Amino acid sequence: MNFIFVYLAIVTSMLILILYRGIRTVKYIKRLTPPDKERFPVLIPPSPKKTVINKFKSISYEIALSCLEEEKEKSEILRIFIEHIPNFLKSDSWSFLLTPNSGNWAFLTWSKNLDFLPLEDIAYKLENEGDNIRIVIESNKSLFIKNVKENVTWKQENPLTVSWLGIPIKIGDEIVGVLNIDWFKTKKFTKIEKELARSFKIEIENVLTKVFKLNELFLNFHLDPLTEIYNRKALEDYMKNRQIITDNIALVFIDIDGFKKINDTFGHTVGDQILKTIVKRIKNVLRVEDYFFRYGGDEFILILKNINNHEDIKKIITRLQSIVSDTIIIDDYIIKSSCSMGYCLLPLETNNIQRAIEIADKKMYLQKSNLNH
Questions:
Q1: Cis (ω within 30 of 0) for the bond into 118?
Q2: Full-prediction pTM beyond 0.85?
Q3: pLDDT, tens digit, for every residue of 202-230?
Q4: Cβ contacts of residue 209 below 8 Å, gap of 6+?
Q5: For the chain, what percentages of helix, strand and coil (3-state, to nearest 5) are there?
């Protein structure tokens, strides 16, 4: 019995000591709390909303750094950022509609379960009849429609959508597009979800504005001032960061035929316009993930991703040469242009870009010499 009393006394003493030390610790930390704080912050658990927003911010800055390091184009940066918002709002599908003031509206990116829809036709219809999108753009505020079938502004041809949220995305002073978030059943949009959507919009716009400014400063250093594509310095940096190529890519070396004669006959001003026209034609058929460099003078290099056989690259080269060879009209001059091209498949023929340039260059000159004969 005495043993039990002794044991209880020891346990009680320990509890009193722990409680005493705990109170002292709390008082000590409380002294470090700013006087304008009424509560002891350590004892307050973080709110779910703040946790989600902080996680979203963390992911946004990780994406920003990655995009800058990989020198991604603006459209690609925008696409990557936009795709993260629907994940946080747990939507059934989503799409991002570009809404330029001048130029046609078009969907930049969308969830895979919308692949079956005629998105080009829908974008055209929304540009002319999409009252819900116009409301979002003009107000620069998100718009939630609980039941699209009962709403007169709804013009999208998505048979699955029941509830819809439109979020305008503004970069700098311009609204670049509207993020469409869809649910396939009636959605009750809670107050917390509204606050999250508003916070995501603000955070995305802030980060994108900063990234675009930094990206523009960086790209200006890597852009050819005449053609506005990547310059040789950009190619050198690309090569420096990719010593050994393991992905399937095709490197194409392009040389404009008879360009010196064009300059001598029509002058350098016309020659510059020819170059700009040819570059624009080639850019129009390239994908976002492809790279286009001005190697020097009338020589250019393309790096095309996901090309792994000779048949595919030959088809692409034939198409490019056909596009380039269309007649160019500048002022009163009618000029017939053409170009010679050579290619190298990596890593099939070599895993080194410098070596690939040499291989493609030789093939280009072989084509040019055959053309002259």
A1: no
A2: no
A3: 888 888 887 777 666 555 677 887 888 88
A4: 171, 172
A5: 55, 20, 30
